[in-house]
Design a protein that fits this description.
Layout lengths: L7 E6 L2 H12 L2 E3 L1 H5 L7 E5 L2 E7 L23 E4 L2 H13 L11 E3 L2 E3 L1 E6 L5 E6 L3
Parallel strand pairs: 1-4, 5-9
Antiparallel strand pairs: 2-3, 3-4, 6-7, 8-9
C-alpha cells in the first residue's frame, strides 16, 4: 500500500439487520457479520463497498462504546452530510434501476459534479431507510 485509503465509514442505524438487508438488496453491497450480529457475537454488522472499504452499521445503543475522544458518544443519530459511491457507468445504471425497483426515492441525474477524480459524468442522490444520504456517481463514459 503506497497511499492513504478510506477503510470504513460508520453509519448510525435503527436496525442493523434491516439496514444490511437494504444495502445488500437495494444497493448491491455484500453483507458482512450479519448472522454474528443477530446471534449477539459481534457489536455491529457491515457491508462491503469494495475490497478495501466497508460501511459499519452501528445500532444507536452502541453509542456508549464510542469513547475514543470526548463527545464521540453524542454522535449517535447524527448522520454525515452524505457518502459518495463511485461506480463504473454500467454499475451506476444498475444501481439506479435496483433502487427504483425497491421504491427508493432518487434525485434527478446531475452532471459535472466535482469529486476525488475530477468532474463526474453523472451523479444522483438517495437516502437509506435511516436517513443517511448517499451520492452515486461515475467518472467514465
Amino acid at each position: 500500500m503506497t497511499s492513504t485509503r478510506l477503510d470504513h465509514v460508520v453509519l448510525w442505524v435503527a436496525d442493523p439487520v434491516a439496514a444490511a438487508g437494504f444495502y445488500a438488496e437495494a444497493v448491491g453491497l455484500e453483507p458482512l457479520r450479519v448472522a454474528e450480529f443477530a446471534a449477539g457475537k459481534v457489536s455491529f454488522p457491515s457491508v462491503r463497498v469494495n475490497e478495501e472499504t466497508i460501511l459499519d452499521l452501528a445500532p444507536h445503543d452502541f453509542a456508549g462504546h464510542m469513547r475514543m475522544v470526548p463527545g464521540s458518544a453524542d454522535s449517535a443519530g447524527h448522520p454525515v452530510n452524505h457518502v459518495c459511491l463511485a461506480l463504473p457507468a454500467d454499475a451506476f445504471d444498475a444501481l439506479r434501476a435496483r433502487l427504483a425497483e425497491h421504491g427508493v426515492p432518487l434525485s434527478d441525474i446531475g452532471h459535472d459534479s466535482f469529486g476525488a477524480r475530477g468532474e463526474a459524468v453523472r451523479n444522483f442522490y438517495f437516502r437509506d431507510p435511516d436517513g443517511n444520504v448517499f451520492e452515486a456517481r461515475h467518472y467514465d463514459t
